[in-house]
């Protein structure tokens, strides 16, 4: 099966049509995006990144693409292979909330259907059960642990409906 | 003085690591920490949901915080993922009135409101405050245990959100570990992410990161890995089973929760410490643990 994500594999031979200043602005308005344009390409983010040697497009390149307003950034593998370790954000000499920006890019990509399939199942189970995983009752019995406190699933569903979690793609 | 918290377990502990909950409760009891069940808890909000939709994440996470707030309690969690998610939500909702209003509008029909009064702590933070008490209770020294301690990311980073330890040279949990007589070894991949959040996107990349970590831990002469997070532990006690380096040499090291080794050193019965549920064999260190 071809993955929907990570399709921009190299800059070599790639021609970008336009630099979209509106896109840079949109990203600057994300949680953590306010200092985006302070990036001066020192690449310290990539130096400490656990997946730098495992991705096609590295995090400092993602940052450059954002400043250039290149929406193709959503098709890079860096977006979904960010492990959210926050090392780049902790170390950025310009104080840019890089990891938080990547969360926003993931949100944008998800709406466009650019996402590893595992996230679709995770969304469904978070919506249906309010949890990612169900308790293993026999282990809890063996250890004398009480049942996990009950959750009224109507409560979380009401909120997630309000946020349109199951209809995110419709906004595109 | 007895400390009292609502205990936020999250999803991974009741599903995969009930020995973490059980050992945490045993250690808490020995230290007179009161743990109140978290009625109505959902998933913490999780980086998974934050990745999909930040508004949904903030509302799910904000609801949990607001529940504890309504009951007048602080929150303690033994999971880095839950800690990070709840603290991060606190951070965003505190700083940004627009998100706070949005989340509170979603909470209103449930009779809840987020104001930010509730403190959110990791269980190891509470333990660190009680290190003097713990030291007095050590009855079984774990001499010979050489620990590769893995702090995990969201316990310490971003430091302006986590607010627990030095993000580049964390020492607090290491201090707790060394109270037992164990040695916390220096390993160069200590601060690196375990790779666990990538299991959903690419298991191959997640396991590659684990392999790099385990080569480092073995090279440093560790005879076990210790964590304080069920998400990290998924890597160290499940993905690690049968893990080899590229030349085919085994990289397996026993993986323990910090509460299990503290419990063993404090002379707590081994049954609630749940060692029989550890998946990677504990045989190489059974004698040291006294089990």
List the helices and strands and how they pair.
The complex is a heterodimer of chains A (172) and B (291).
Chain A: H1 21-28, H2 44-47, H3 59-67, H4 77-81, H5 87-91, H6 98-111, H7 118-129, H8 137-142, H9 153-162
Chain B: E1 3-7, H1 12-16, H2 18-30, E2 33-37, H3 46-52, H4 54-70, E3 75-77, H5 80-95, H6 97-107, E4 120-122, H7 123-129, H8 131-137, E5 146-150, H9 159-162, H10 172-178, E6 183-184, H11 203-219, E7 224-227, H12 230-239, E8 255-257, H13 258-265, H14 270-273, H15 286-289
Parallel strand pairs in B: 1-2, 1-3, 3-4, 5-6, 5-7, 7-8
Helix pairs in contact in B: 2-13, 3-4, 4-5, 4-6, 5-6, 7-10
List keywords for this structure.
heterodimer, A: Fumarate Reductase Iron-sulfur Protein, Chain B, domain 2, 2 domains, 42% helix, B: 291 residues, alpha/beta, Glutathione S-transferase Yfyf (Class Pi), Chain A, domain 2, 4-stranded parallel beta sheet
What do these coordinates show?
The complex is a heterodimer of chains A (172) and B (291). Chain A is globular, with a radius of gyration of 19 Å. The mean pLDDT of chain A is 96. Chain A has two domains: 21-111, Alpha-helical ferredoxin (Fumarate Reductase Iron-sulfur Protein, Chain B, domain 2); 118-165, no CATH class. Chain A contains nine helices and no strands. The two termini of chain A are 24 Å apart. Chain A is mainly alpha-helical and 172 residues long. Chain A has helices spanning 21-28, 44-47, 59-67, 77-81, 87-91, 98-111, 118-129, 137-142, 153-162. Chain B contains 15 helices and eight strands. Chain B has 291 residues and is of the alpha/beta class. Chain B has helices at 12-16, 18-30, 46-52, 54-70, 80-95, 97-107, 123-129, 131-137, 159-162, 172-178, 203-219, 230-239, 258-265, 270-273, 286-289, and strands at 3-7, 33-37, 75-77, 120-122, 146-150, 183-184, 224-227, 255-257. A four-stranded parallel beta sheet of chain B has the order 2-1-3-4. The longest helix of chain B is centred in the N-terminal third of the chain and has 17 residues, at 54-70. Chain B starts with a strand and ends with a helix. Chains A and B meet through α5, α6, α7 and α9 of A and α1, α2, α3, α4 and α6 of B.
């Amino acid at each position: 099966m071809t993955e929907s994500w990570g399709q921009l594999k190299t800059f070599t031979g790639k021609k970008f049509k336009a630099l979209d200043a509106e896109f840079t602005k949109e990203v600057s308005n994300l949680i953590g995006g306010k200092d985006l344009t302070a990036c001066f390409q020192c690449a310290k983010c990539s130096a400490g990144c656990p997946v730098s040697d495992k991705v096609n497009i590295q995090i400092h390149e993602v940052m450059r693409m954002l400043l250039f307003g290149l929406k193709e950034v959503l098709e890079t593998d860096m977006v979904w292979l960010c492990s959210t370790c926050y090392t780049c954000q902790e170390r950025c000499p310009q104080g840019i909330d890089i990891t938080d920006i990547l969360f926003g890019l993931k949100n944008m990509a998800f709406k466009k259907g650019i996402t590893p399939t595992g996230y679709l199942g995770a969304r469904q189970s978070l919506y249906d059960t309010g949890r990612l995983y169900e308790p293993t009752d026999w282990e809890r019995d063996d250890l004398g642990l009480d049942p996990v406190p009950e959750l009224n699933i109507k409560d979380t569903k009401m909120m997630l409906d309000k946020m349109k979690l199951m209809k995110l793609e419709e906004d595109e | 003085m007895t400390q009292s918290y609502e205990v936020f377990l999250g999803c991974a502990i009741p599903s995969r690591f009930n020995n973490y909950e059980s050992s945490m409760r045993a250690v808490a009891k020995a230290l007179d920490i009161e743990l109140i069940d978290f009625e109505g808890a959902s998933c913490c909000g999780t980086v998974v949901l934050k990745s999909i939709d930040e508004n949904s994440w903030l509302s799910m996470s904000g609801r949990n915080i607001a529940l504890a707030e309504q009951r007048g309690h602080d929150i303690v969690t033994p999971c880095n993922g839950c800690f990070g998610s709840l603290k991060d939500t606190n951070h965003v909702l505190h700083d940004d009135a627009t998100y706070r209003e949005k989340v509170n509008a979603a909470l209103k029909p449930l009779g809840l409101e987020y104001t930010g009064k509730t403190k959110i702590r990791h269980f190891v933070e509470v333990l660190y405050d009680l290190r003097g008490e713990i030291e007095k209770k050590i009855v079984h020294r774990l001499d010979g245990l050489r620990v590769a301690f893995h702090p995990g990311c969201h316990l310490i980073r971003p430091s302006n959100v986590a607010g627990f330890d030095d993000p580049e040279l964390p020492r607090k949990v290491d201090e707790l570990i060394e109270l037992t007589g164990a040695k916390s070894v220096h390993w160069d991949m200590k601060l690196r992410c375990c790779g666990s959040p990538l299991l959903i996107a690419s298991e191959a990349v997640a396991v590659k990161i684990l392999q790099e970590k385990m080569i480092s831990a073995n090279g440093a002469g560790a005879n076990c890995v210790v964590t304080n997070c069920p998400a990290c532990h998924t890597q160290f006690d499940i993905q690690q089973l049968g893990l080899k380096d590229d030349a085919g040499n085994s990289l397996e090291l026993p993986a323990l929760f910090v509460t299990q080794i503290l419990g063993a050193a404090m002379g707590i019965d081994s049954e609630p410490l749940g060692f029989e549920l550890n998946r990677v064999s504990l045989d190489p260190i059974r004698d040291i643990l006294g089990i």
